């Protein structure tokens, strides 16, 4: 089985063959159909977050259950599922009060199975799995409690983004902040998570949705996702403009979808007395933001953090799927270009250089035909014989910070360019690894 493994911080991922043990009691094996790559993966790659290596990264994914271990209920082979990267034991204090994202019912480390053992090896060496799942792989064995069944008509690429980017953004508004209809909202950062904060505010009925970013193309997308006003922080005094738009008071709610010292302080300055500021983006562990306790108390401001949008995966993932299928949740717009699996590091380079705002990554069966030709270049989308099997690619986009592996269906040779796209949506011929 092929997987993208990180062996050392600040080095590229290596796509290698690994050995996988089957699911044990309480576990399931899933064939990954789509898996996203976000900045949380990058924090591990560049050493911001120190975790034991080697490790298969990836935490945002969807796939099909292939088999289950003993004692697994509510899940069967053939089910379509979204991975939740947080456990939910169902027994601890947090699960009991409906805050399963904070579950502390398992004593094992979060890069191994619940019994503390691993399911992956290479040359006799244990390979860890990010968040107990590690979705940059053809198949994943993980605790069954981290899998949420969904409707089969949900497309795989869109389902993958339901595993992190979408619930993190929408949930920050609806679950964590409980934004009410008619409220004023500021969103700092319009990547994938930020755009979902914007559309979460739209779904909640916010009257004023002010989106802020440094790039005009991201602000155009924010308008498409529901922003009523946009501010370019390179040109605009964000806090002053927010106050001008809110009668001089400041916004009711402000969300930091980036995660950093400057943006944390900015959302506190942007809210009115009695307002709520929410940190959504995950900063490096070393980041510190110096707040002024006197003003926090004097103005009764609230600063909150949210992990994973404070969602309840078993309840919220299916609801978000319903909203998408009803045409009320925008996800299709988060996808543009395509790469082969062996180009995953090029996708990360594009992500970190600002060439793209979000990408997605769909991982499918390895190319199985021994006589199939090998191509090492990206081409426009082309016909590919069905008998050769399915092919993994990486698709990255302009709207967030993820990559996606996608399966290109045979048929058209095309380059698609959307109305607001700063980069062409070029699809790759996916025959780059055997």
Give the SSE layout.
Elements: E1 2-6, E2 14-17, E3 19-20, E4 27-36, H1 39-45, E5 55-56, E6 60-68, E7 80-83, H2 93-96, E8 120-122, E9 125-129, E10 139-143, E11 147-149, H3 156-161, H4 165-177, E12 184-188, H5 192-204, E13 208-213, H6 216-225, E14 229-232, H7 238-245, E15 251-256, H8 261-270, E16 271-279, H9 293-298, E17 302-305, H10 313-325, E18 337-340, H11 344-353, E19 358-362, E20 393-397, E21 403-404, E22 415-416, E23 425-426
Parallel strand pairs: 5-9, 12-13, 12-15, 13-14, 15-16, 16-17
Antiparallel strand pairs: 1-2, 1-5, 3-8, 4-6, 4-10, 6-7, 7-11, 8-9, 18-20, 19-20, 20-21, 22-23
Structure summary, number of beta strands? 23
Instruction: Pick out the low-confidence regions.
Output: 357-434
- Rounded average pLDDT: 81
Helices and strands: which structural class? alpha/beta
- The strands making up the biggest β-sheet line up spatially as 2-1-5-9-8-3
The main β sheet shows up as: 6 strands, mixed
CA(first)-CA(last) distance: 11 Å
Number of domains: 3
CATH topology of the largest domain: Quinone Oxidoreductase, Chain A, domain 1
CATH homology-level superfamily of the largest domain? Medium-chain alcohol dehydrogenases, catalytic domain
Q: What's the helical proportion of residues?
A: 10-25%
